[in-house]
Amino acid sequence: MMKAPITSVPVHSSEEDHYVDDHILYRFLVDSLTEYAVFAVSPDGAVISWNSGAEKTFGYTKTEVLGRSFALIFTADDARAGEPENELASALTGRQTQHDRWHVRKDGSRFWGTNTVQPLHDAAGKLLGFTKLVRDATASHAALEELSDSEQQLRLLIESVSDYAIFSIKLDGTISSWNAGAEKVFGYSQLDVIGANFSVLFSADDIRAGIPSAELRRAAADGSARVERWLIRKDGSRILASGRLSELRRDVDGDMRGFVSIAHDITQNDAAAQDLRRRAQYDELTELPNRRTFYEHVQRAIALMKRRSAHMLAVLFIDLDHFKSVNDEFGHIIADGLLAVTARRLEQCVRSEDVVARIGGDEFAILLNGINGVADATDAAERIGIEMRQPATIDGRDVRATVSIGIALANRKYKKPEDILRDADTAMYAAKTDGRARASMYTPAMNNGSALNADLAADLHHAIEHAEFRVAYQPIVHLSDMRIVGFEALVRWQHPRRGLLTPGLFIPKAEETELIVSIDRWMLREAARQLATWQSRGIGSSLQMSVNVSSKEFSRDDFIGELQVIMRSTGLPPVSLRLEITESAIMERSERAMALIAAIRNLGIELHIDDFGTGYSSLSALQHMSVDALKIDASFVASIDSRKGTELVETVITLAHKLGLVAIAEGIETSDQLARLIELDCDFGQGFFLAAPLGAEEAGRLAIAGVCVPDA
Ligand code: C2E
Ligand code: MG
Ligand code: MG
């Protein structure tokens, strides 16, 4: 393929005799140009000369390249696109001789080269080949590119910084960019966090205290804020992050777009970190370990117990009785003093290997590590009880406070510290219920009580994911003939450890945490699906399903949309659905509430006011709200035996009828109550006397029967 090898370059000299000298000179010159790659190729692109600059620039020695196609210095993409041939062709036409492009070295690395190609003819005008001159211009090219696309460059730069977490936050707190450093520092990938609220980086306590939004506010107010704080990594470990949170503006006088956070991990740093760590582990007021640290101790003790079967431990949950009254009566300085005194007394009552911690306002916990038996735990509780009964003198005032104590003995079933603490808490509640100033030992039977615990929220999350909710259906009947007109869907929680829980035990917590929205939506879907299924089997085509809707759910912007989706996906006719809402949810009479109510009724869905009489409905509000029914709260029905009670119920029924609404009595428990309600012209009713809330199957059977037949 190598035709007419060219070993020389003609010089523009008319005298033949100068040729050789010039030729040598020229060669010498070209070879000394070490900063420039100068070489020649044959007409079909084979390398025929290669100077030392080319060796240096491309990394190939002369012997390596001679005879090979010069396409080898092109990128694979350019070579495939025919760029080597194009370069030569356009040089021939004289159209273009300058081709700046990426070139490839022998080692595969690239550089940006300015590149000039010239055709080479002999004296007779015959094409001998081409000369090429290439200079590495990467540095100047990069500078140019940087200028032309500095934002892009900056982004790349930021993305590649790996020791600093750099991320941006939108005005609403969601994370919109996340660099490699943030990945390294926090352990979350971009996929994990982009679109999530940046509060994921904060501890639950900080979130509760509103720290994330407070930081944004501070940055917005001052333009930028220095931040040093313990944050939480993806794996749950804590890091001390130090950095700056700055607001981000599009340009000098533009609007604020969001925030940029730059932080790095200083967990391992010096005294400041020690101090912060101490503050993160200990309670400042009592100087006792805090809840987190307590959990760590318990976790270690559990691990030890697993390894050594003889190792026994117990957790005491201690709550001051009537602490609120102490606060109210003596003020918070003395109340704080009481907490500090309690801390010292608790420490006196146990051995040095035990751990006393403050885990909440007036709540303490003790880990009794390595006890010999139950008696050790009850003895400790007794000592604490006696010690606490001594009056304490704080700021010259005598303060008395007793404690209620719950004891949980650890066994191998326990895996997490939270579980033991929860059971000790349950036992403490039992002690309170029994009259306070006493201790009680945890037994599984206590779980059926009303003891709430701190892990309920976590359990609730789990419950939603693991489909632990069930629906109970309570018939609603026409009081004049006991005909079943519909069911009320009531949520139940099949708790993995505590068994079946009624809503009173978890709805309040769910409302606190917004989880209620997920529960309500699931209930709506499930109840609608159930009635649609019955209807498709020819049962209950005239039945209606009542579903409770929390005010949290009711006030959501997407509530109407969700209703439409449910109606569409289940195929349930809207007239078959009724929503039960408490007075407070709709009595604000805001324009939004009015519009929402109108929208729901436009869909053809009825609205009932639940627990009517326990809230603050005003008559005029009721008139404007255009709802369909009032549900008379069970407490009124329970009082119907008294004269005053009868009058009250009668008033509500009359009111409903005057407003063109239907009255539904809740909680009918006796035949007498039923008889009185019928007398008072109440339209519908439900209650244990008629039928308890039932499982779907039983409810379905009752729907087929069509009537409720009370036993008595
Ligand atoms: P509610 O809407 O007033 O429901 C009626 C409650 O009275 C139910 O309690 C029912 O089991 C109970 N009950 C039925 N018959 C009698 C009776 O003869 N006597 C007495 N004393 N009570 C009777 P439950 O199931 O414990 O529900 C309690 C409350 O929890 C409900 O009160 C409702 O406000 C709320 N709830 C239930 N399910 C849901 C739900 O899916 N979402 C929301 N947001 N709240 C729900
Ligand atoms: Mg209800
Ligand atoms: Mg009710």
Structural topology:
Elements: H1 19-32, E1 36-41, E2 47-50, H2 52-58, H3 62-65, H4 76-80, H5 83-93, E3 101-104, E4 110-121, E5 127-136, H6 138-148, H7 150-160, E6 165-170, E7 175-178, H8 180-186, H9 190-193, H10 204-208, H11 211-222, E8 224-232, E9 238-249, E10 256-265, H12 270-281, H13 291-307, E11 312-320, H14 323-330, H15 332-349, E12 355-360, E13 363-371, H16 374-389, E14 392-394, E15 397-399, E16 403-409, H17 417-433, E17 439-441, H18 456-465, E18 469-478, E19 483-495, E20 499-501, H19 507-512, H20 515-536, E21 544-548, H21 551-554, H22 559-570, E22 577-582, H23 583-586, H24 591-602, E23 606-612, H25 619-625, E24 629-632, H26 634-638, H27 643-658, E25 662-665, H28 671-679, E26 684-685, H29 696-705
The site of one magnesium ion has 4 residues, from loops.
Structure, explained:
The chain is α+β, with helices and mostly antiparallel strands and 712 residues long. The chain is 42% helix and 24% strand. It is built from 29 helices and 26 strands. The protein has an eight-stranded mixed barrel, surrounded by four helices. α20 (515-536) runs parallel beside α22. The longest helix is centred in the C-terminal third of the chain and has 22 residues, at 515-536. It is extended. The protein starts with 18 loop residues before the first helix and ends in a 7-residue tail after the last helix. Mean pLDDT is 85; it is low at 1-21. Ligand C2E binds at residues 474, 490-491, 502-504, 507, 516, 519-520, 523, 548, 550, 580, 610-611, 634, 666-669, 687-688, 693.
